[in-house]
């Protein structure tokens, strides 16, 4: 389903194990290196390494990222729906959209990291109950984003992360502009076909949903397999400690070459 949609490169700046000044340097360097999007993530504690290591909050950081960048799109990969009232989240997104001059992507998912829930007093529930909550809350968030004064600079794109075929991909077909999946090219090809089928059932053009996947800083040859599987947004995860500008340069050069071929 990749059609002739341009290939885009994103960096996910993981806000863990790194002083904030260094995170700022990584965000700015990523923009300077030519990536299209810079994401962070929405957790309260590190996901790897020392579980009590340095960590910063997602949306406060997005407000800062909006000011420190001028060209890239920014967003969370992904916001946990459980952590904020849906209307509040919509107003936060609208505000960051204005701070950035219209560059916010609202990335959202149903949540999974139990430590966040336990330590911050949220009800963890079950994977199905968290998905039901996302299904109920997301239309409220989208409506609130549109209805604030002033309204957003654009219709804020929604990214949904997750691969559940019965619920997550149906919610994606209903609401999302970008889908972020995980796994091998073969897995992603299968998930893309399931998403396409949900789009058909809901009378949505599957071509209107950009497909995204995580890549390592490894050899960029994996990119060609992902494009063949329908993925056109490649996301490299890095913290301040693991920042590799050369890897970003390779991916950006690969993007430019492929987009020239496709154009």
Please characterize this protein's 3D structure.
By secondary structure, this protein is of the alpha/beta class. 44% of the residues lie in helices and 16% in strands. Helix 3 crosses helix 5 (127-147) and helix 6 (168-175) packs across helix 7 (185-201).
What structural class is derived from the secondary structure elements?
Answer: alpha/beta
First-to-last CA distance: 16 Å
Tally of contiguous helical segments: 9
Reading the helices and strands in chain order gives: EHEHEEHEHHEHEHEHEH
Largest sheet: 8 strands, parallel, barrel
Percent of residues in helical segments? 40-55%
Strand order of the largest sheet: 1-2-3-5-6-7-8-9
Q: How big a fraction of the residues is strand?
A: 15-25%
Mean pLDDT: 95
Principal-axes geometry comes out as globular
Topology:
Blueprint: E1 8-13, H1 20-32, E2 37-40, H2 58-68, E3 73-76, E4 79-80, H3 86-100, E5 104-109, H4 114-120, H5 127-147, E6 158-161, H6 168-175, E7 178-181, H7 185-201, E8 210-215, H8 222-228, E9 233-238, H9 245-262
Parallel strand pairs: 1-2, 1-9, 2-3, 3-5, 4-5, 5-6, 6-7, 7-8, 8-9
Helix pairs in contact: 2-3, 3-5, 6-7
């Amino acid at each position: 389903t990749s059609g002739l949609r341009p290939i885009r490169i994103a960096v996910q700046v993981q806000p863990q194990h790194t002083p904030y000044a260094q995170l700022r340097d990584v965000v700015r360097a990523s923009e300077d290196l030519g990536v299209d999007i810079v994401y962070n993530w929405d957790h309260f504690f590190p996901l790897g390494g020392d579980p009590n290591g340095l960590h910063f909050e997602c949306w406060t950081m997005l407000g800062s990222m909006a000011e420190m960048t001028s060209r890239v799109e920014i967003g969370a990969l992904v916001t946990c729906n459980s952590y904020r009232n849906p209307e509040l989240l919509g107003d936060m997104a609208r505000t960051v959209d204005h701070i950035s001059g219209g560059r916010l992507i609202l990335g959202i998912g149903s949540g999974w990291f139990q430590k966040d829930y336990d330590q911050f007093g949220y009800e963890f529930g079950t994977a199905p109950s968290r998905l039901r909550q996302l299904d109920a809350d997301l239309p409220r968030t989208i409506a609130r984003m549109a209805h604030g004064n002033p309204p957003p600079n654009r219709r804020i794109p929604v990214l949904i992360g997750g691969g559940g075929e019965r619920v997550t991909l149906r919610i994606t077909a209903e609401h999302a502009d970008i889908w972020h999946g995980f796994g091998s090219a073969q897995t992603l090809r299968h998930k893309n076909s399931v998403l396409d089928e949900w789009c058909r059932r809901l009378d949505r053009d599957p071509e209107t949903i950009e497909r995204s996947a995580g890549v390592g800083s490894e050899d960029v040859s994996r990119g060609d397999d992902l494009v063949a599987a329908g993925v056109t947004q490649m996301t490299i995860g890095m913290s301040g400690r693991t920042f590799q500008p050369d890897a970003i340069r390779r991916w950006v050069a690969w993007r430019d070459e492929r987009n020239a071929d496709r154009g």
